[in-house]
UniProtKB/TrEMBL annotation:
Protein's UniProt name: DUF1638 domain-containing protein
InterPro entries linked: DUF1638
The species this protein was found in: Methanolobus mangrovi
Lineage of origin: Archaea, Methanobacteriati, Methanobacteriota, Stenosarchaea group, Methanomicrobia
All copies of domain DUF1638, residue ranges: 80-254
A Pfam family it matches: DUF1638
Taxonomic superkingdom: Archaea
Amino acid sequence: MPLLTILSCKILQDEVVHILENDPSVDEILVVANGQEDDFASKLQKTGLKFRFLSPDRLPDDTESYKNDPTRYSVMVYMVELALHEFPKILKTEVYKLLEELSKYSSGILLFYGLCGNVFDKIETDFEHLGTSCPVRILRDETRTVDDCVGATLGGCSEYLSTLKKFSDKGTFLFTPMYAHAWREIMRVDPEKPDKTIKMLRKVNEITGYKRVAKIKTGLSHTDNFDEKVAEFAEIFDFEVLEIEGCQNIFEDCYTSIKKEIVGC
């Protein structure tokens, strides 16, 4: 059976864990030890999932037996640095490089990404040249690629648009558990001078009209202290806290689809 690679933003690591813990047909989980895997590996351990670390420098040799073993279905997970989101063009360049490289060792690749500022709008077309040897797929709903990780967690593009319209009277941050965990990193709060950065963010929020933060209830519990992290964020910026429902449908459906494409069942 083949080797499926999941190339994922670190924000979606909980969703990757969810996929793996609910697929008993996975014979082996491989995690690329590229310096971005610590939290993800810890969550796999807490879930009771066994895995093997692979060195990014030895992927050609270490993955050969998995891709060519007709009796086993393996999943390799490669986490991508979160900070790249700040620079969409660099993010696109790095992900495209990874796809070209990982496609040499994979039977198929599923990106746990959305459009991310439209930089991935043509990614499946751009990698059509790989054909059936290594199909490249990205998170999609029934009509198109989802906008981003929040859109995927809400269930797709129409659900995302509906949510944005619902909150159109006031600016609202939409937090998943991992977003709440990493908001300081995402918003580039200087750990050496946090007060200065937060003061600037307060001014930006005032100018742009942001007044609320909404917790997206994903149904997952792999990231600790979600409520506490959101409460901290709300207190810092004097925000109202709301709750909205999310789901795992997009992740499950896209995973099932590419698995069927490369495994045949």
